[in-house]
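step=encode ok
step=design start
structure_in=
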């Protein structure tokens, strides 16, 4: 209806989205998939070594932590641009209480972490007789 307002709104949205994106660049990207018999968590961790990844499960909170080693390179001159991140990544995911904590499996290959969290077998429904 008002194209000028629409263009201004788009400009403002892009402006604020760019600021948000810059602050979130260090957050690992994840997918959480619920299948019939398990949950699957896939996290992108490019450049991270397997030994620098920690996974824990406390109650129904899955915590993934990773550390990117600081890049120490001797260079003559100063940086024109420095975008490679060194530091810690951490994500928490709250899952249902029906996770079988004893059979969680994780594998890391080509910078992608895949965690499979099997679901517990559903408890049978107890029928109560009416007297």
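sequence_out=
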């Amino acid at each position: 209806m008002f194209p000028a307002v629409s263009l201004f709104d788009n400009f403002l949205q892009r402006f604020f989205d760019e600021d948000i994106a810059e602050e979130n660049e260090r957050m690992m990207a994840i997918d959480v998939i619920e299948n019939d018999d398990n949950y699957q968590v896939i996290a992108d961790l490019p450049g991270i070594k397997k030994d620098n990844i920690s996974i824990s499960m406390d109650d129904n909170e899955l915590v993934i932590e990773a550390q990117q080693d600081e890049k120490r390179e001797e260079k003559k001159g100063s940086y024109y641009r420095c975008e490679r991140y060194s530091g810690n990544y951490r994500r928490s995911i709250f899952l249902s209480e029906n996770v079988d904590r004893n059979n969680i499996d994780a594998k890391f290959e080509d910078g992608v972490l895949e965690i499979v969290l099997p679901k517990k077998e559903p408890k049978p429904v107890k029928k109560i007789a009416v007297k």
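step=design ok
step=annotate ok -> The first helix runs from residue 3 to 24.
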